[in-house]
């Protein structure tokens, strides 16, 4: 689906109050899901899976099932804030280090005046505090829950709690709050377009090496898939 189609689906879910988990899948998720049966099942049962990143687009072209554009978590966050200001959608930000989601909310509310960000909470709570976290989110009555706990924690958290919370849309958005709070800079547009965003991120955050190491594996799996199809 293109971005406008995804946003239309979000609108439908909010109007009908049906729950929809949107998974933003990048190459690392595809690799992790192969050895994580719970994540694989969540991805397969999600309401929507969007192509998040250059790796997925490359694979889609290489396998002759081309996807024209990515629909990334970080872009969705901005579009949802814009539409929140227009339509009154209520957003809740859960995740990232203490203070980061609140700072991201502040910056986004400045960029999109009128955006309804009805609550924020960091992602480093103890298991024992989960009840509190759930009550806080429920009391804020969001239409959209954005969860930044990293892959696959965010997908599993959403899968476990979305229906109980009764929130129409929930999306795992990875490092998006770090970006919008200003803690992490986004790669220049030419690097995003040339599929080198991962290199920029690795340069500024060498701890991302684990995620980057999944990329060669993703490429090999894609090539193998094409060879298997040819036979
Ligand atoms: N995070 C969190 N709680 C945790 C683990 C991670 O809130 O227990 C946050 C972390 O601070 C960061 C985000 O989750 O803001 C993960 O970002 P990353 O770019 O690593 O996401 P991914 O590459 O997994 O999509």
Q: What labels describe this entry?
A:
six-stranded parallel beta sheet, 13 helices, 231 residues, alpha/beta, 56% helix, binds uridine-5'-diphosphate
Can you walk through the features of this model?
- The two termini are 29 Å apart.
- α8 (153-165) links the parallel β5 (144-148) and β6.
- α2 packs across α3 (37-45) and α2 (27-34) packs across α13.
- The protein has 231 residues and is an alpha/beta fold.
- Strands 2-1-6-5-3-4 form a six-stranded parallel sheet, with helices on both faces.
- Helices cover 56% and strands 13% of the residues.
- The chain binds uridine-5'-diphosphate.
- The site of uridine-5'-diphosphate has 15 residues, from α9.
Q: Would you tell me the overall average pLDDT?
A: 95
Query: How much β-strand is present in the residues?
Result: 5-15%
Structural class: alpha/beta
What string, H for helix and E for strand, traces the elements in order?
HEHHEHHEHEHEHEHHHHH
Please provide the count of β strands.
6
- Side by side, the strands of the main sheet go 2-1-6-5-3-4
Shape: globular
**How many whole angstroms does the radius of gyration measure?**
17 Å
Helix content percent band? 55-70%
- Describe the biggest sheet? 6 strands, parallel
Quickly count the helices. Answer: 13
The small-molecule ligands in this entry are: uridine-5'-diphosphate
Q: Would you identify the regions where 5 or more consecutive residues have pLDDT less than 50?
A: none
Distance between the termini: 29 Å
């Amino acid at each position: 689906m293109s971005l406008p189609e995804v946003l239309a689906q979000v609108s439908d879910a909010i109007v009908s109050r049906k729950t929809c988990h949107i998974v933003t899948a990048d190459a690392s998720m595809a690799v992790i899901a192969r050895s994580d049966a719970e994540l694989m099942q969540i991805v397969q049962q999600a309401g929507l899976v969007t192509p998040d990143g250059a790796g997925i687009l490359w694979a889609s072209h290489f396998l002759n099932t081309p996807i024209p554009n990515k629909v990334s978590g970080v872009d969705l966050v901005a579009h949802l804030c814009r539409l929140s200001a227009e339509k009154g959608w209520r957003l809740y930000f859960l995740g990232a280090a203490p203070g980061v989601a609140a700072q991201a909310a502040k910056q986004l509310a400045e960029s999109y005046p009128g955006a309804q960000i009805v609550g924020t909470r960091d992602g480093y709570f103890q298991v024992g505090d989960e009840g509190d976290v759930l009550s806080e989110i429920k009391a804020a009555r969001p239409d959209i829950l954005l969860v930044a706990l990293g892959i696959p924690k965010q997908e599993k958290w959403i899968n476990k709690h979305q229906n109980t919370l009764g929130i129409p849309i929930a999306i795992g958005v990875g490092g998006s709050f770090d970006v919008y709070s200003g803690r992490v800079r986004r790669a220049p547009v030419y690097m995003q377009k040339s599929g080198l965003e991962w290199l920029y991120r690795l340069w500024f955050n060498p701890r991302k090496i684990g995620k980057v190491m999944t990329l060669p594996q993703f490429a090999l799996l894609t090539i193998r898939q094409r060879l298997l199809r040819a036979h």
